[in-house]
């Protein structure tokens, strides 16, 4: 089995204390993973973008950049070691993005993912040779204007975190409240927050073309029942519970969610089924069922991620993710891999698919049909059929319990 999304305290301040990549990989190998991705956060540019725990420990944008460089060195060292040793698990070196303001894209392309070859690299290949893949994530709202945003809702100086804690999320909601909103009803503000989030996500996907789309609907972490794509019973419930004044916002939101899914599906991105939400009081992994159904209807590809922030998170709630996908009728999933020499040769001879081809797929009924399996940063997506019968699933919780017991 596989995961594409993980963090440890050596390079991430909000991960489990004393955790480190080597321990994460050892745990994954012990549980029977065949592919495990390291994906520390990219550094941020401004002091105002630091999280409270980073400020508390004295971090600065400069020190975060140095930590990022240290991560790349350590991750490649571990990847090389696992290639040499008969551990039967491949290690991928990735990074998780941010998209906080209009300046984020420039900072990532010129300073973080850029290098000597950056001038010749497109968004899809930015970071090639530095990392194997990107987890394309957004963790803020308010710093990016959505297309119909009113001047009544000016941009925040920097984006406001939406997943740090409930109080900070509520502050983000408050940013999107208008004077004419009905007192006590923050539904319009929540819709505007989601519009800002998905506009940032669209810009990130369009400019970076990440191989993995991270926790697609993180914007509703603190409002898990919030519907993004009303249909059937949920459409009737939404109409009954909300005033007609929010209908235009809901219609716009449904369109931008569909737009984002279409873009990612059209170039072959993998949407992670992220089990972290299940340890945060959700009933399902990210994305929730309304979005998952849309991804599948458009021919999108899925992968698994645990978004682990410490060894005890590795593979956590994976059995629930399995049940979730089976309930949706998912018969195949994908994981990233490094291509063999033969595949690289074949890939080079075929050349990259053009943007014109992608746009044609993007306007089709199922834009995922015919999408490439190769990515310009160097990875290849491998399909796994019969994934639900993999021996990995048998006794997974027992293996996790035994490993946890050794630590206590």
From TrEMBL:
Location of the region described as Disordered in the Swiss-Prot/TrEMBL record: 344-374
PANTHER family noted in UniProt: HISTIDINOL PHOSPHATASE-RELATED, HISTIDINOL-PHOSPHATASE
EC number of the protein: 3.1.3.15
Any one of the GO CC terms: cytoplasm
PHP domain: residues covered: 4-275
Keyword Hydrolase carried by entry: yes
Keyword Mitochondrion (UniProt): no
Catalytic activity: L-histidinol phosphate + H2O = L-histidinol + phosphate
Keyword list, A-Z: Amino-acid biosynthesis, Histidine biosynthesis, Hydrolase
GO molecular-function terms, A-Z: histidinol-phosphatase activity
Protein known as: histidinol-phosphatase
Family to which this protein belongs: Belongs to the PHP hydrolase family. HisK subfamily.
Pathway named in the protein's UniProt entry: Amino-acid biosynthesis; L-histidine biosynthesis; L-histidine from 5-phospho-alpha-D-ribose 1-diphosphate: step 8/9
Top-level EC class: hydrolase
One GO BP annotation of this record: L-histidine biosynthetic process
């Amino acid at each position: 089995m596989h995961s594409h999304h993980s963090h440890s305290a050596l390079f991430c301040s909000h991960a489990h204390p004393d955790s480190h990549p080597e321990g994460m990989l050892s745990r994954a190998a012990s549980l029977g993973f065949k592919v495990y991705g390291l994906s520390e956060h990219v550094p941020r540019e401004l002091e105002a973008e630091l999280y409270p725990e980073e400020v508390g420990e004295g971090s600065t944008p400069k020190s975060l950049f140095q930590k990022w460089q240290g991560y790349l060195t350590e991750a490649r060292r571990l990847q090389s070691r696992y290639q040499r040793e008969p551990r039967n698990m491949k290690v991928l070196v990735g990074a998780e993005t941010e998209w906080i303001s209009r300046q984020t894209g420039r900072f990532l392309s010129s300073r973080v993912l850029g290098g000597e070859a950056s001038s010749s690299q497109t968004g899809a290949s930015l970071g090639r040779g530095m990392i194997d893949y990107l987890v394309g994530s957004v963790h803020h709202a308010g710093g990016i204007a959505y297309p119909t945003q009113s001047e009544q809702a000016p941009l925040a100086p920097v984006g406001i975190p939406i997943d740090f804690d409930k109080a900070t999320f509520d502050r983000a909601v408050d940013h999107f409240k208008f004077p004419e909103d009905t007192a006590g009803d923050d539904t319009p503000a929540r819709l505007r927050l989601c519009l800002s989030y998905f506009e940032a996500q669209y810009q990130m996907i369009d400019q970076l073309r990440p191989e993995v789309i991270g926790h697609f609907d993180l914007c509703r972490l603190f409002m898990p029942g919030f519907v993004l794509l009303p249909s059937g019973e949920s459409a009737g419930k939404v109409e009954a519970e909300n005033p007609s004044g929010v209908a235009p916002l809901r219609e716009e939101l449904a369109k931008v969610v569909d737009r984002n899914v279409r873009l990612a599906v059209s170039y072959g991105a993998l949407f992670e089924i992220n089990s972290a939400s299940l340890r945060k009081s959700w009933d399902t992994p990210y994305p929730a069922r309304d979005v998952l159904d849309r991804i599948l209807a458009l021919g999108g590809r899925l992968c698994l991620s645990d978004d682990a922030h410490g060894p005890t998170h590795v593979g956590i709630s994976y059995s629930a993710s399995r049940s979730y996908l089976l309930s949706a009728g998912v018969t195949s999933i994908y994981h990233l891999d490094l291509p063999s020499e033969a595949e690289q040769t074949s890939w080079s001879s075929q050349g990259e698919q053009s943007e014109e081809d992608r746009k044609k797929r993007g306007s089709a009924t199922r834009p995922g049909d015919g999408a490439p399996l190769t990515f310009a940063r160097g990875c290849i997506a491998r399909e796994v059929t019969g994934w639900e019968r993999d021996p990995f699933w048998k006794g997974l919780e027992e293996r996790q319990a035994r490993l946890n017991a050794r630590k206590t």
